[in-house]
From TrEMBL:
It comes from Chitinophaga flava. PROSITE patterns: CNMP_BINDING_3 (PS50042). Gene3D superfamilies: Jelly Rolls. Residues 9-52 form the Cyclic nucleotide-binding domain. This is Crp/Fnr family transcriptional regulator.
Amino acid sequence: MERYHYFRQFHDISLADYHLLIENLQHRSFKKGDSIIVPGQIQRDLYFVKSGVQMASFEGDKTYVIDFSYFPFLCAIAESFSFQVPSKYFLTCLTDSELEYISYEQLQGLLDQSQQIERLFRRMIEAMLAGMVDLHINLRAMTIEERYRVFCQRSPQLLHLVPHKYIASYLGIDPTNFSKLFNQVKF
């Protein structure tokens, strides 16, 4: 029921509609280091994280981290899944991961069948968009220490699960400066 309470933060979905959604979920396990999606691949399934940490990233002269996912969040390359187009990014498991998933076609059927499920996903996408805008602003308006503090308040568990070089990339902080912050700023 944890996921039900999580969903209700976005929309007051009924138990009947919640069960309609979760009855269509299937289970998949991934090992640390497994790729869920690679550039050029279309994400055909939307994942719901049960356990583990995943990372969306792209490669240039180094690894650029876009986002992390973990319970109870969704795990997806949003534009690839939503528009069924090839991904430009990697979606990789940073730890062993247990994910539940629903196919694009199944989800479209549920969205057509239930206004409550459709509204839930619309609200979740709106929240994701607002989060991306906040991150974009934070990367430009906050000092590196402020970014680090916000991250630690929002996702403190990731400090012990994710290699610090990836968190530094996500926050737009040089790994050496991140290491200094990690050792000096305590929570």
